[in-house]
Amino acid sequence: MDLIFPKKLEELQKALVTFHEALNTKSSTPDLQRDACVLRFIYTSELFWKTLKVYLREEAQVDTAYPKETARQLRNIKVFSDEETEVGLQMIEDRNFCVHAYQEAVAEKIFRKTKDYYSFMQQTLSKI
What we know:
Elements lengths: L4 H20 L5 H31 L6 H10 L5 H19 L3 H24 L1
Helix pairs in contact: 1-2, 1-5, 2-3, 2-4, 2-5, 3-4, 4-5
């Protein structure tokens, strides 16, 4: 059986590079940097949860259907602490809200969290 996790992990690492670039690029138009960071947060976080879902299936033989369920199962197998689970659940909420209801105030709020979310994703990958 071919494992999917290594391929998903490689895709995620590439997405994290682009997310990091957006976080560290200074724009003469702050709105453009904010929007670039939020967009890259959206697609990177989506890939993050899909990668972790595959990790759970292949490494822990646990099937999940949704990102929140994935976060909770990662806590159950001790990849996430209770605090990390809460960060993960909030990240899912922020991603969902931004995708379904784009508003400038929401984008600004999420933009202020993007560096923390980037760090959270990097820390998680160092554990698995």
